[in-house]
Specification:
Layout: H1 14-31, E1 44-46, E2 49-51, E3 71-74, E4 77-80, E5 121-123, E6 126-128, E7 149-151, E8 154-156, E9 162-164, E10 167-169, E11 190-192, E12 195-197, E13 203-205, E14 208-210, E15 231-233, E16 236-238, E17 245-247, E18 253-258, E19 278-282, E20 288-293, E21 301-307, E22 313-317, E23 328-333, E24 339-345, E25 352-359, E26 368-369, E27 376-381, E28 401-406, E29 411-416, E30 424-430, E31 437-441, E32 451-456, E33 461-468, E34 475-482, E35 491-492, E36 499-504, E37 524-529, E38 534-539, E39 547-553, E40 560-564, E41 574-579, E42 584-591, E43 598-607, E44 614-615, E45 622-627, E46 647-652, E47 657-662, E48 670-676, E49 683-688, E50 696-701, E51 706-713, E52 721-728, E53 739-740, E54 747-752, E55 772-777, E56 782-787, E57 795-801, E58 809-814, E59 822-827, E60 832-839, E61 846-853
Parallel strand pairs: 17-19, 26-28, 35-37, 44-46, 53-55
Antiparallel strand pairs: 1-2, 3-4, 5-6, 7-8, 9-10, 11-12, 13-14, 15-16, 18-25, 19-24, 20-23, 20-25, 21-22, 21-24, 27-34, 28-33, 29-32, 29-34, 30-31, 30-33, 36-43, 37-42, 38-41, 38-43, 39-40, 39-42, 45-52, 46-51, 47-50, 47-52, 48-49, 48-51, 54-61, 55-60, 56-59, 56-61, 57-58, 57-60
């Protein structure tokens, strides 16, 4: 409530208040942005003094607002009246105010009745203006944030400042809120007039300020980055570090200098440890291939060519060859492309050097035509030729020479570089330069020259390119001829053992097919003549490729004595075979899966012991014990796995009969085979695993017949103690003495093939084992069924006409039902047949033979005179005419 006579304090507008508050805030910040308010709570600093702007007549409501004479400051407002400490009111008279002795108002209170003015509100015992008081803005105890003012009862930033994230900022200069809240400038930018911008001398590159004269990310212009290791100088990327000299564009030329006391700025990749350097800057006017070398220098040099802009090493070399310690490089350099030529030393070497520079001629393809007269040889030098072709099996940058060739006739043609003085690469392309690659070879036969064979049609033109390995060049020789089959053998090993030879199949021809692997790999061939009877082993252990080894008798195309791809789960091969004294074996070193490369052929042998080494008596039955441990494999077994050690025995039959030989009771996996007359004679019988790992064979012999019995092992690892049993069979059930079954039908006959010989051969199987033979006479003319359906082993059944196993075969079957057999034969009454219950090799057991007459066919099938002729059939007069059907009135 206003009191009359009081002068109202001038009221400022909100804009004015904001401006004033901004000035005060700026002034305060200017004095000390980080210092604390030195006045006590409720006071403000004005003119260096702490005052209460709610009661000070000199600073009423704000600093510098003085009340007029006769007025005092109450609640920050000038009002009429004396300061209560000075006015008269009597000494506690009746009119005295409650806050003083006769004063009208106490500081911070209202009028005489203690109430605040209409514009003020009492907050914590003080009269405040809620429209402007920053500590009570809009309501008591609502304080504005530091830096804010209270305008119209709301906390706000002073004029010129913007509230961002609870703080008042100058959006014209603040880098975090440039022009607007959350608009941040990059670390290299400034905020000028509310916009992020770069300072003078810098350029804005995608929001980053960069010096285009020195920035390695923006060299010369935005987004032009220098390669790793390069620096930006005057707006251009360069690798030129330290001092260097310039070489003029004149060729050929020679430069001399020294690396002693030179700088060390470049680490060449071709030397693990370098030395001091001498560097030259060279910028060619024309693109081309340039050759540089340090021949004639007095120390172990290293030489490199480095791009002056990207720092990439375009070429580098330590030694020209293992015996020449100077260096040589070839580099393809573009027109105007600056490069650095770095001359240094190996492992700390330094001294005086001579640098030779030359320029190759322009690339040319083809260089010359071969013509159609063969054979022909070309020679030349690629050193100063250009690089026209990059071979598919080589590297770019090497000089090359090329020739066109047109085939005069259909056939194979061979190209090689034998006689060249450097490491060559040879490529054959179809039609023209850069045509389809027909063949490409780097190193033939393990050397540094090349060879390729191609099959062409008459009139077909190809291009032969002679290139260099890793840029090599020099004197070359190109030979062109019509292909001829290589000699076989390529080399004679004589009769020496043990011995080893090495070679390389790369670039050789594929002529011979392997009997145990399918491959188009080239092969190498050798001959070896056995000096004595023995077992000889050929292997490729130590070879670098996946080999296949095959050995032939008498010639490269002779009978196969052995073939092996991967021995003992390795990629190398082993073949072991017995050879007689003077017998020549032809050994072929081949590759698997078209492989070629370096190989090693090893030859070893064991002289054969006497064969037979032991003699069995003639009394049977008999049993002998022995061991194959430490023995060799000299007699090839007709069955089972080869390579096992064996023991040999001579046996003479004391009388005619079937003799049974078995190894029951032996300690390893055996194979038993019997030969007529001598070791290696005709096989009379062979068996592996009749019962488990042991073996048994029965052979018919005549009195006085000499045989060799061999107790063998199934494979190279099978050897040990064995037991050999010999017995004379009763001879029943053989071709010579068949079992007579008479004419009974049906009948079932049981017997065992275990002790039987292999006396007859079936026509429906390539081989067979033990058999049991029967004779049968047909009781009447009809078809008979014969089977082995309940036998215990894999049978073969064959039937012959007459009373002999050699009679015409009437029927034969293997595996009619599972492993059992069944045949049908039409016989006439009284016809005699021979039935052979045979077996698969190494299979024997209980033979069950069934004989029965086939069921006679119905003479008149389907002709019953009454069938289908019932006069009433299908003619029921009432059928389907039931008057009540479907009309039941009471469902």
């Amino acid at each position: 409530m206003k009191r009359s006579g009081l002068r109202l304090r001038p009221t400022l507008s909100s804009a004015a208040l904001l401006l004033v508050a901004g000035v005060v805030l700026a002034s305060s910040c200017a004095e000390s942005a980080n210092s604390l308010n030195p006045c006590t709570d409720g006071q403000s600093q004005c003119g260096g003094e702490c005052v209460d702007t709610q009661a000070s007549v000199d600073h009423c409501g704000e600093c510098g607002n003085a009340c007029a004479a006769g007025h005092r400051c109450a609640a920050g407002t000038c009002v009429e009246g004396e300061d209560p400490g000075e006015g008269g009111g009597g000494e506690g008279g009746e009119g005295g105010g409650q806050f003083g002795e006769g004063g009208i108002d106490a500081p911070g209170q209202g009028g005489a009745d203690g109430a605040c003015s209409e514009e003020h509100t009492e907050c914590d015992g003080r009269c405040v203006n809620l429209q402007t008081d920053p500590r009570n803005c809009g309501d008591c105890d609502v304080a504005c944030e530091e830096g804010q003012v209270c305008a119209d009862g709301e906390c706000a930033c002073p004029e010129g400042l913007t509230a961002c994230d609870g703080a008042c900022v100058d959006a014209l200069t603040d880098r975090t809120h440039c022009g607007d809240c959350e608009t941040r400038c990059s670390p290299t930018q400034l905020c000028v007039e509310g916009a992020c911008s770069c300072s003078e001398g810098l350029t804005d590159c995608d929001g980053s300020c960069a010096d285009l004269q020195t920035s390695e990310l923006h060299c010369g212009s935005c987004d032009v980055a220098c390669e790793r290791g390069a620096i930006c100088q005057e707006g251009a990327c360069t690798c030129a570090l330290g001092t260097y000299d310039e070489i003029v564009d004149t060729f050929p030329q020679t430069v001399t200098g020294t690396t002693i006391a030179g700088e060390t700025n470049y680490g060449l990749a071709c030397v693990a440890s370098g030395s001091s350097e001498r560097v030259y800057l060279f910028t060619p006017a024309e693109a081309g291939t340039y050759t540089l070398d340090t021949s004639g220098s007095r120390f172990d040099t290293a030489l490199g060519v480095v791009s002056a802009t990207s720092c990439a090493q375009l070429a580098c070399n330590d030694d020209i060859s293992p015996t020449i310690l100077q260096s040589k490089v070839r580099a393809v350099i573009g027109a105007g492309e600056p490069v650095l030529i770095v001359v240094t030393g190996f492992d700390g070497s330094e001294g005086d050097f001579t640098l030779h520079l030359s320029k190759a001629g322009p690339p040319m393809c083809p260089s010359e035509d071969v013509g159609d007269t063969l054979p022909k040889t070309f020679t030349g030098d690629t050193e100063l030729l250009g690089d026209a072709i990059t071979p598919s099996c080589g590297h770019p940058g090497g000089p090359d020479v090329s020739y066109t060739f047109t085939a005069p006739a259909d056939g194979k043609y061979v190209f090689d570089t034998f006689g060249s003085e450097f490491n060559t690469i040879l490529e054959l392309q179809d039609g023209e330069c850069d045509g389809e690659v027909l063949a490409c070879n780097d190193d033939s036969r393990g050397g540094s020259q090349s060879r390729a064979v191609v099959e062409l049609e008459a009139g077909q033109t190809i291009v032969a390119v002679v290139d260099g390995f890793e840029g090599a060049g020099g004197r070359y020789t190109l030979n062109v001829a019509a292909w001829e089959p290589p000699p076989c053998p390529m080399m004679d090993l004589g009769s020496t053992y043990p011995q080893s030879v090495t070679g390389n199949t790369s670039g050789l021809d594929h002529v011979l097919e392997s009997p145990c692997a399918s491959s188009d790999s080239p092969e190498a061939t050798y001959s070896f003549t056995a000096p004595v009877d023995g077992r000889y082993t050929f292997d490729t252990i130590g070879s670098s490729l996946d080999t296949v080894l095959h050995v032939h008798d008498g010639s490269c195309a002779g009978p196969t004595l052995g073939c092996n791809d991967n021995a003992s789960s390795s990629s190398q091969s082993v073949v072991s075979t017995p050879l007689s004294a003077g017998q020549t074996a032809y050994v072929v070193v081949d590759g698997a899966y078209d492989a070629s490369g370096a190989y090693k052929l090893n030859v070893s042998g064991i002289p054969a012991p006497p064969c037979p080494a032991n003699e069995l008596g003639s009394g049977v039955p008999l049993t002998v014990n022995g061991t194959t441990t430490g023995l060799g494999d000299f007699v090839s077994a007709p069955c089972g796995a080869p390579g096992g050690a064996e023991a040999t025995y001579k046996f003479v039959a004391p009388e005619d009969g079937v003799y049974v030989f078995d190894t029951f009771g032996s300690s390893f996996d055996t194979v038993i085979h019997v030969h007529d007359g001598a070791c290696g004679g005709p096989s009379l019988g062979c068996n592996e695993n009749t019962a488990g790992p042991q073996s048994r064979v029965a052979v018919p012999l005549v009195a006085g017949q000499e045989t060799v019995v061999v107790v063998d092992g199934s494979g190279p690892s099978a050897s040990g103690a064995f037991k050999l049993n010999v017995a004379l069979s009763n001879g029943e059930g053989t071709c010579a003495n068949p079992i007579n079954l008479g004419s009974t039908v049906p009948q079932v006959v049981n017997g065992s093939t275990l002790l039987q010989p292999n006396s007859a051969a079936p026509g429906c199987a390539a081989s067979s084992g033990n058999d049991r033979v029967y004779r049968f006479t047909a009781p009447e003319s009809r078809t008979y069924i014969i089977d082995t359906l309940t036998s215990t082993f894999d049978t073969i059944l064959h039937v012959h006409d007459g009373d002999s196993c050699t009679g015409a075969e009437l029927a034969c079957n293997d595996n009619a039902s599972g492993v059992a057999s069944r045949v049908e034969v039409a016989l006439t009454a009284g016809q005699v047949i021979t039935i052979v219950g045979d077996s698969r090799p190494s299979s024997s057991g209980n033979l069950v033979l069934h004989i029965d007459a086939a069921r006679a066919p119905d003479p008149d099938p389907g002709t019953d005179p009454d069938a289908g002729t019932d006069p009433d059939a299908g003619t029921d007069p009432d059928a389907g005419t039931d008057p009540d059907a479907g009309t039941d009135p009471e469902p």
